[in-house]
Amino acid sequence: MNELVFSVQNVIDGGGITVSVVGMTIVFFALATVSLVIGALPKFLKVLSKYMPEKEEHNASAPQRSSSDSEKIAIAAAFAFHKN
Amino acid sequence: MEMFMGFLGTTGWAQMQIGNALMIIVGIVFISLAIVKDYEPLLLLPIGFGAIVGNIPSLAGMPLGVYDKGSVLSYLYFGVRQGVFPPLIFLGIGAMTDFSTMLANPKLVLLGAAAQLGIFLTLVGALFLGFTPAEAGAIGIIGGADGPTSIFLSSKLAPHLLGAIAIAAYSYMALVPVIQPPIMNLLTTKKERQIRMKAPRIVSRREKIFFPIVAFLITALLVPGSLALLGMLFFGNLLKESLVTDRLATTARTSLIDIVTILLGFSVGASTQADTFLTKQSLLIFALGAASFCIATAAGVLFAKFMNLFLKEKINPLVGAAGVSAVPDSARVVQMVGLKNDSTNHLLMHAMAPNVAGVVGSAIAAGFLWSVLVK
Fold it and tell me: Given an 8 Å threshold on Cβ–Cβ distance, is B128 in contact with A24?
């Protein structure tokens, strides 16, 4: 940009109105679609849970490995290493 | 003696220009705002110190500044110049963001879309002032109130304006608590500000896991230009919500984002060298940036009022102001203004929905502008 010339013609030449209208439409369309999908997601998951109950999911009901478990593993590994 | 005199001629003092001194003062003001006022300290402090570093005059032939080929700072600045840092920041943001409130109340997503009006009206304003379409697009994205997105897009569309755009974006993000409340109060009645919203429902783990995958597919397929930002955002969120990659999620939202923030803030600050930064264009960018924040806030609030015309369960229009991204500051401002009008009405959780939707919305807008304005 070399020189600043204030003019409405710049907006017309640069396609400003078109870019703005199309841009806002796309942003709205994308987020409205996301919104609709989010709204429908619980219904879809309800159907899915009939075939794949959530409690059977990987890691969903599995007990979290506590730090004491990690410590036990580390101790066992160290013991095995020491024995060999 | 001759060598000593020659050396004196090479010192920063001897070569200091008024512009450098001014930018060093700006850097000190940023550091003061960060420390004294606690305004976005994680960003303003690195940017402020970077501005001081970037404005120490260097000797011709010595590669020291961010724009000098082969200098250390130019390698740090590479991540900004090539748009590497912003997606990494988005990864961290994704790994720390809880989309539950948005998933619980999907209509609030639209407020995040409405607030993007600031981007596009500012683009029109920038074109009117004589900026090229690519420059206008890079300036307009300041209205998205999202620093990484602003840096990402300006690195692609108008790298020569990157310093001014980044500083404007982060400055106004820091000033969200100052800029937004008067607009929110002006556009709403006390009765509207006291509207209570129903507590959000509990969201299942499966919804949280499905969301980043589905939302990424919808947005990235529609606007591939937003792939880098949204891909990292939703990937980070999946790391968090899957519960099987705790270590990765923790790294992304702590160490990684901290490292990238340091490098990004410092190198953006160092890019504000007086000769490239103190221009008429920079002043106009700051003016347009302020206007874009105001428009974005107003658009969010007004759209919430518009939605209330059709909704049985009314939305408190204050939450519309959180559509301008600036996570989580604008949501905090909504909470603060809400509490001023009713000390028992907590709006923070509700405001987080348009707030995170605004992040997605501004990344979509950036992807769109990149795709249509790049040469």
Answer: no
